[in-house]
Amino acid sequence: TDVIPARLCGASGCGGNSEIQISKAYTWSGNTLLGLLGSRRYNIPLYFRTVMGQNVTAGPYQVLLTFSINYNVCAVGAVGACLTPQTGTATTSILLNMTVTNDCSTMTTPDVNFNSAPLVQNFPTVSQSVAVTCTKGSTYTIGINNGANALNNVRRMVSGSNFMSYDIYKEATSNRWGSSGSERWASASSSQVSTDGLLRTYNYTAKVLTSQATPPAGTYTDTLIVDVAF
After folding, report:
1. One domain for residues 134 and 45
2. Distances (CA, A) of 161 to 112, 148, 157
3. Among the four residues 35, 137, 141, 176, which has the most C-beta atoms within 10 Å?
4. Is residue 138 part of a domain?
5. Is residue 1 part of a domain?
6. Alpha-carbon distance 118 to 6, whole Å?
C-alpha cells in the first residue's frame, strides 16, 4: 500500500517551528490571532504540505485528522485586563483528500545525427534510446509522429526543395515506430525498466532508406514529436 506523508503546520510555508507533530500541542497566540478577537467565530490557520520525493501509484489518497482544541480567549477586555475569559475544549475532524494522476516527469529524446556520406547506402544506422519517467505503476503507449515532411507514411528530411527518406524502428527490428495503432510502443514491452519501475527505456534504430536515389548534397533535417498516451 502506497502512502503520501504530509506535514501539518500552523504557519504558511511550515517555517520556523510551526509544524504540528502527531499527538503534540501547538499554540496559536499573540499576533497570530489578533484578527479573531472581534468575532465569535474563530478561524485558526492550518497549512498542509506533502513531503517531496514520494513514488506512489495514481489514485485517491486520504487521511482523517482529529483535533482536540483547548481555547482560552478574551471576550471582553479593558486596560490590558481580560474581564470575560472564555475557556473550554472542543474536538473536530478534518478529512484530507488528494488525487494522484498519471503523468510523466521527464523524457529524454536525443537528436539523431546520420553524419555525412556521399551516397544514401553509406549512411550509418543510428542506435539510440528514448527514456521516460512516469507515475509508478502507470501503463501507457509512446509514439513518434511522421515529422514535418512525410510522404505516404514515410519520414523525410528536407534541404531546400530536396528530400531524403528515413525511418525509425523499434529496437533492432523492422517494426516501424509510429504514432498510431500497433506502431505505438506499449510501456509493458519497453527495452529496460528501472528497479523502482518509474524509468523506462525504449531502444530504437534510425536508418536512411537505401531504396531511394541519392539526393543533392546539403544539410537535411526534420523535427519529430514524441508523445505519451495513458
Report:
1. no
2. 21, 13, 10
3. 141
4. yes
5. no
6. 61
Residue linked to cell 506523508: 5
Question: Total domain count for the chain?
Answer: 2
Q: Are residues 71 and 143 in the same domain?
A: no
> For the segment 121-171, what is each residue's pLDDT rounded down to a tens digit?
999 999 999 999 999 999 999 999 999 999 999 999 999 999 999 999 999
Show the cell assigned to 41. Answer: 467565530
pLDDT at 203 over 60: yes
117 shares a domain with 92: no
- Considering the entire predicted model, what is its pTM? 0.80
* φ, ψ for residue 225, nearest 5 deg: -115, 125
Spatial CB neighbours of 62, under 8 Å, sequence gap ≥ 6: 95, 96, 97, 98
Which residue has 537528436 as its cell numbers? 111
Flag whether pLDDT at 117 surpasses 70: yes
Question: In the structure grid, which three cell numbers stand for residue 133, read together?
Answer: 519517467
